[in-house]
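Worked example 3 (structure in, sequence out).
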């Protein structure tokens, strides 16, 4: 239960920090058991200790990108897990056409540089590598690509090559082979494995690798 709406008015219904950690540890301990399958809900980044341990994916907020909601009074809002802030209301279903609102508003959530803030730049989980440390992900076209690595072994590469406004974008593979399970996953300290599943596909496609997520920079 999230401290939103009526739930926020009754502290006795909400769990405290140690209680939430106890639940996360319990779900994590049951991860390998198929039945019953336990999983944690959507809200919030949980840190590398629990991300992809208590649910099958790394947290990524999609509010305003492909998630919207209609509140009890008709307000067109973002994800219902977001605190009810007036400045986040995009319109009202009683007076506005939802498609028009969806197509023309929610812009603050769709700004690809939305994580270019000081807090994201101070993230302790992702580190920007130097040019010399990311040579295998450079195509020598225009500005240098930016390669980030995460403490858990993931990596993300950004480029300006296809950007319409000159900002960095997460590099994607137009040939679509990234849906082959595991082919673009960084697999830790194994040099042979990394060569087979990361470096070789890089040369085959001629493009940088698609990663789960990382801090987007300007």
């Amino acid at each position: 239960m999230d401290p939103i709406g009526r739930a926020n008015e009754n502290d006795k219904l909400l769990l405290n920090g140690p209680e939430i950690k106890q639940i996360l540890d319990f779900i994590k301990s049951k991860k390998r058991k198929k039945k019953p399958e336990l999983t944690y809900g959507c809200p919030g980044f949980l840190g590398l200790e629990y991300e992809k341990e208590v649910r099958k994916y790394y947290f990524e907020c999609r509010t305003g990108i492909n998630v919207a909601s209609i509140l009890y009074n008709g307000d067109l809002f973002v994800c219902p897990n977001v605190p009810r802030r007036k400045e986040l209301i995009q319109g009202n279903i009683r007076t506005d056409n939802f498609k028009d609102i969806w197509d023309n508003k929610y812009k603050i959530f769709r700004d690809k540089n939305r994580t270019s803030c000081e807090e994201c730049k101070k993230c302790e989980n992702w580190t920007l590598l130097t040019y010399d440390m990311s040579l295998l992900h450079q195509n020598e076209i225009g500005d240098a690509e930016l390669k980030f690595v995460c403490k858990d072994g993931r990596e993300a590469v950004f480029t300006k090559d296809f950007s319409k406004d000159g900002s960095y974008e997460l590099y994607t593979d137009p040939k679509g082979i990234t849906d082959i399970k595991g082919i673009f996953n960084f697999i830790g300290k194994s040099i042979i494995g990394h060569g087979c599943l990361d470096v070789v596909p890089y040369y085959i496609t001629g493009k940088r690798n698609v990663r789960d997520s990382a801090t987007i920079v300007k």
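Notes: Strands lie at 69-70, 75-77, 91-92, 126-128, 146-150, 155-159, 169-170. Helices lie at 17-29, 98-104, 107-110, 118-121, 191-205.
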